[in-house]
Every structure is written in structure tokens, then in C-alpha cells.
Amino acid sequence: MKGKTHWNSRNCAVFLAVALATGFSIPAEGIILFRTADPTANTTAPTNDAAGSGWNYEGLWGGNLGTPIAPHFFLSAAHIGQAGSTFSYQGVSYTIAGGIPDPFSDLNMWQVNETFPSFAPLYTKHDEVGQRLVAIGRGTLRGSDFVVNGQLRGWNWGDGGPQRWGENIVSQIVIFSFAPNDGLYATFDQNGLANECHFSAGDSGGAVFIDDAGVWKIAGINSYVDSLYTDASGDGLFTAALFDANGFYTDDPAHPGSLIQITQPTPTGFYATRVSSKLAWIESVIDPTGIANADGIPNLLEYAKTLTDAPPLGYGPASAQATQSGMALTYRKLTDKPALQYQVQQSVDLVHWMPATSQDDTVGGQGNVATIRSTVNGSSPLFLKLQITQN
Asked: Which secondary-structure segment (H or E) carries 306?
């Protein structure tokens, strides 16, 4: 989006749980609406063309929300942690069996012991830009006017409110750290939709939904808002929903740790961690032996494959490096999935392959994904490849 490239990084956003992180006393109870400060607006399920847009799929998760996506699993934001020992959905309390965080994003999958009677379908397309979304959260109400030189620029975050919905347009896909750790970005525009909205503290964990041929599907989990500072020192961080941030400062992704000034009328925006780029991980959790995309590959194996595939849907292919005595292959491996077998194979002609005898070292990792460097001794020509199978 023109003029917004300085915000295309997770480093340039703040968690919606910022109130807890910075010590401000902001109740974490919804969505800030552009066109009204009525505390009762949009606090019941939407009607008309937005009917069925996800309201009934939201459950209470402590002071935040979560969204069931399978009979025993719901999605929420990882940065809010375990918000409670139970999850309340459609008037019924469900006990938590455990959490399965995605090691590469702000998504966390929580498992319950009981069975959900219904759950949200997943948005699987990669065409979110330009699409209208309905956002649901439990953030603060619209607070006092934010005025600069006599001109209204937006609103401060107010007191806690109830579950609320709003709408916006996906303006771009933002890469937080590397693909596929990305998000849907939407801006708080003066000339926006009738229910134009922004996020604030407490909206984390709620969801955004997109209409897919008449069926509203979960497309993202509420995660971040743009960070704003009053000066370049970094000491003036403040929280507000601004439709014009001209004159204030934000993080500079080109120079991490420094701030740049916004020099033109610019709306701030919010970020929802994208679901469509996380389908392999999601399916591997909710149904590891199933086959979600009819390609004959079990879901767990499909996810293991994405860990060694090229972006944008993969995390980077396995890479080979020459050593003094042979070659080394570096790849990502799931460490807690005994159903998967990883085997480095070698060849001298790219036709005939055999298992390699390798020295395997863990050289990095995140969560349950380790980065492995497998070194194989041998003379040139020597070729290596990784084979992954699932029992």
C-alpha cells in the first residue's frame, strides 16, 4: 500500500495486550468503531449482508476470545498465553487439555476434552487483499478525542467493553518475520465502511472472517496494531486509534531499533495473523493422519514438508554446503512427532540413491522444530537429499 511500507514488519507493531506489557491500567474486556461512540453498538450478532459472519463462532477465553475450528480445538493468539482453565462457548464451559503453539507465528491451538457442537470453517484461498472482513473482539471502547492543533485525528483507547464486531478491508499482506509468518493488514480510514473498525487492548485472540461464496470463514486471528510514538527517542509510546498519524513516529523496518516520522496524512492499522498460510500446521494438529487437500499426503507429513519447502507457503528449502570431507545438508525437523522418519540419502549420479551415514547436529530451532545439519563424508561427485516418511 502506497506510503505504508514503513509499517510492513512485525517489529513495527505492538501486541494488543500492550496494556499488560507496559503497565497501563486498561481493562481487557470491544472493537473501536469509527462512526459511533455508542457503547451498545454492534454488541449483538450482525444482520443483513453480514449475518452469519462469525459472531456465533466466538468463545470467551478469559478476558479475550477464541474460535473453535475443529471438534476439539480452538484458535487464539499465542501472546495472551493460557487465559483460563476453561473455555466458554455458546453457554457451555469446556475444560482445557493443553495448548499447541505454532513455533513460527502468534497462533496457538488449544485442545478441549469435550466436543464442540459447531466450529468455524477455514478460509483456504490466498486472495484476501481487497476483501471485506468482519472483525470480532473484546477490546476497549472508543475513548476521548485525540486532537492535534484543533483537528480530530482519532480516539484514545477507552474503558473495557463487551464483545463487539466491526468491518474493514484487507489492504495488504504483511510479512512479520519471514514467510509464511504473515498477517492481514487493514487501515482505519475516514472514508471507510459503514462499520469501519480498529483494534485495541483486549481484542487479541478474536478473529476476522471473510465471505467465501456466501459462507463466512475464519481468515485470521487478531494480533497487533501499529505502534506510535510522540518523538524519535522511543520514550513516547502511546496507544490510540488514529485515522491520521501525520507528525508522529513509528518503527523503521529498514533500521531496526530506530524510528521514522510519518510525514503525510496516514491511517494506522491492525494486523490479524493469517490463517491461509498456516493450513498445513493447522491440519497437522487437528487431524495428523487425515488428508486435507486430496493429494494423498497425510496432514502431518504435509506440514513436515512445508518446513523444507520454498516460500511463500514453505519455511525455506533444505540447503547443501560443501565440507572438507564431503557435504552437509541443513533442514528443519519436527522433534516431537515419532510417526515421522527423517533420512538423509546420498547419490553419485542423481539416479541411484542409498541411505547416508551422517553426523547429525542440532544447530538451531524454535519450539518443536529443530534445525539439523547432517554431515556426510565422501568424494566428489556427491549429492544429498532428505526423505521424510510417516507411519
From this structure: helix 299-306
Cα first-last separation, the chain: 46
Upper half-sphere CA count for residue 229 (Cβ side, 13 Å) = 18
Longest dimension (CA), the chain: 76
pLDDT mean across residues, the chain: 91
CATH number of the domain at 355, please.
2.60.40
Retrieve residue 196's grid coordinates: 469501519
Joined together, the cell numbers standing for residue 379 give 568424494
Residue 268 lies in a domain: yes
Range of the domain at 193: 5-277
Note whether residue 11 is domain-resident. yes
Compute how many other C-beta atoms are within 10 angstroms of the C-beta atom of residue 73.
21
- For 142-175, write each residue's pLDDT tens digit: 999 999 999 999 999 998 878 999 999 999 999 9
For residue 381, say if its preceding peptide bond is cis, omega within 30 degrees of 0.
Answer: yes
pLDDT band at 284 (very low <50, low <70, confident <90, very high): very high
Tell me the torsion sign for CA atoms 241, 243, 246, 251. positive
Find the angle CA(221)-CA(226)-CA(231) to the nearest 5 degrees: 160
Distance of alpha carbon 159 from the chain centroid: 26
Element (H, E) at 154: strand 151-160
How far apart are alpha carbons 377 and 361 in whole angstroms?
14
Of 211, 198, 128, 189, give the one whose Cα is nearest residue 166: 198
How many domains is the chain built from? Answer: 2
* CA pair distance 109, 115, nearest whole angstrom: 15
